[in-house]
Amino acid sequence: MNESALSPAAIEVVALTKQYAQGKPAVDAINLKVEGGSYCCLLGPSGCGKSTTLRMIAGHESATSGDILLDDKNITDLPAAARGTAMMFQSFALFPHLSALDNVAFSLKMRGVRRAERHARAQELLERVAMGHLAARKPAELSGGQQQRVALARALITQPRVLLLDEPLSALDPFLRVQMRAELRRWQQELGLTFIHVTHSQEEAMALADTMVVMNHGRIEQMGSPYEVYNRPSTEFVARFMGGHNVIETPQGKIGVRTDQVCISPDDAPLDAAEPQLPVIVTDVEYQGTYVLLGLQQQGRKFAAHATAEFSAMVPEAVYAAMPFAVGQPACMHWRTGAAHVLTA
Ligand code: ADP
Ligand code: MG
């Protein structure tokens, strides 16, 4: 295999549906285009249909209806091995008793490729991910990062044009997770392949994705760059799921305002009357280092200290130090009109 053999493909999903049983489908007529060579993250809460979508693309699950296209080829009914896709699983799922080389060569063995040839191809891929010198080691003799590279090489051995990753980082400890996430992104760019990565972590999706696809109850709620989705969540669900937003009912409808774009003033401070504002009570003060996170509750509701806050404000540490608040203190939450945007139901 030579290096130019890896070439990315686009994936398009048209009205793709999976109905496991009676009732609401697990995946409900979704439409999605993933550009060749891009990093796409499917994001959403547990049970929203991410893995089912990925498994249908991989060919590990049949579609009830709809189509899956790889470039312009309809792969909906092809067996998994004939699609040009490959899967990378949670915690890398390496075989513990096999060397790195044999782990990488494994699927070629299943396909009846001769030993010398499969070892040569596996060695070449291990070199490509800077693991050639550790080919004889077993997974337990490798660091987490090295294991991830072996898993990547193993997934790439069949020369897929799209790599599918189902929560590959979820079982790792937080420190390693952040490290491995940076590596994944680097390899995706270096290899130039199309990656479709399932995660329930918005932080992970924002760090990795060119395109983020936010799913809820088997449907796509919003799709766009992390910047677009974070700055303009289109629905209440996306605003709440992404976090960092206040969802506020106003006479004009429901709006979203980022928690770092609301200001908190003492109750009696003179304010610009043109600025939208809401009387609140401070329910929580959390020191977070560079900023202080204030939990807030609308005035007039029954006050409960440390109750789940209705709203939050991220106040820069220095601003807070100059004007601190006590739990139970009445205050005014206000924001620039331009900082708010309308959320649909
Ligand atoms: P996610 O990966 O987003 O957590 P899944 O795609 O695994 O969600 O599941 C979506 C829905 O489909 C859930 O309600 C789940 O219980 C259901 N489901 C998943 N796999 C199966 C299956 N093999 N048989 C029946 N129901 C399933
Ligand atoms: Mg899942």
From TrEMBL:
PANTHER family hit by this protein: SPERMIDINE/PUTRESCINE IMPORT ATP-BINDING PROTEIN POTA, SPERMIDINE_PUTRESCINE IMPORT ATP-BINDING PROTEIN POTA
PROSITE patterns from the UniProt entry: ABC_TRANSPORTER_1 (PS00211), ABC_TRANSPORTER_2 (PS50893)
Species annotation: Corticibacter populi
Gene Ontology molecular function: ATP binding; ATP hydrolysis activity; transmembrane transporter activity
InterPro entries per UniProt: AAA+_ATPase, ABC_SmlMolc_Importer, ABC_transporter-like_ATP-bd, ABC_transporter-like_CS, Mo/tungstate-bd_C_term_dom, P-loop_NTPase, Transp-assoc_OB_typ2
Alphabetical keyword list: ATP-binding, Cell membrane, Membrane, Nucleotide-binding, Transport
GO biological process: quaternary ammonium group transport
UniProt superkingdom: Bacteria
Domain ABC transporter: 11-242
GO CC annotation terms, alphabetical: ATP-binding cassette (ABC) transporter complex
Keyword Protein biosynthesis (UniProt): no
The protein, known as: ABC transporter ATP-binding protein
Any Pfam family hit: TOBE_2
